[in-house]
Amino acid sequence: MVDFGTPLAGGRKVTPTGSSPSNKEVTGYSIIEADSIEDAEEMLKGHPHLAWAAGCEIEVHEALAVPGM
Q1: Fewest C-beta atoms under 10 Å: which of 12, 45, 63, 69?
Q2: Cα-Cα-Cα-Cα dihedral of 36, 39, 30, 64, to 10°?
Q3: Is the overall model pTM greater than 0.85, yes or no?
Q4: d(CA 13, CA 27)
Q5: Burial class, 32, CB count within 10 angstroms (exposed 0-12 / middle 13-18 / buried 19+)
Q6: Is the pLDDT of residue 66 over 90?
Q7: Sign of CA dihedral 7, 32, 23, 54
Q8: Radius of gyration of the chain (CA)
Q9: What is residue 29's three-state secondary structure?
């Protein structure tokens, strides 16, 4: 675990023409370190959030380097 993260609420979608309430149900984030997406998925097996209610899910995304940084 690189960063335990925090709960999230009240998201906004920002576009070139303005903003509106987000329609995504993102409720928190954490940052983990793994050698691959598959390894990250393996680490999340049995995670307590997946047992909270029907339909609970965790998304896994790879953090990429920012070009030129």
Answers
A1: 69
A2: 0
A3: no
A4: 15
A5: middle
A6: yes
A7: negative
A8: 15
A9: strand
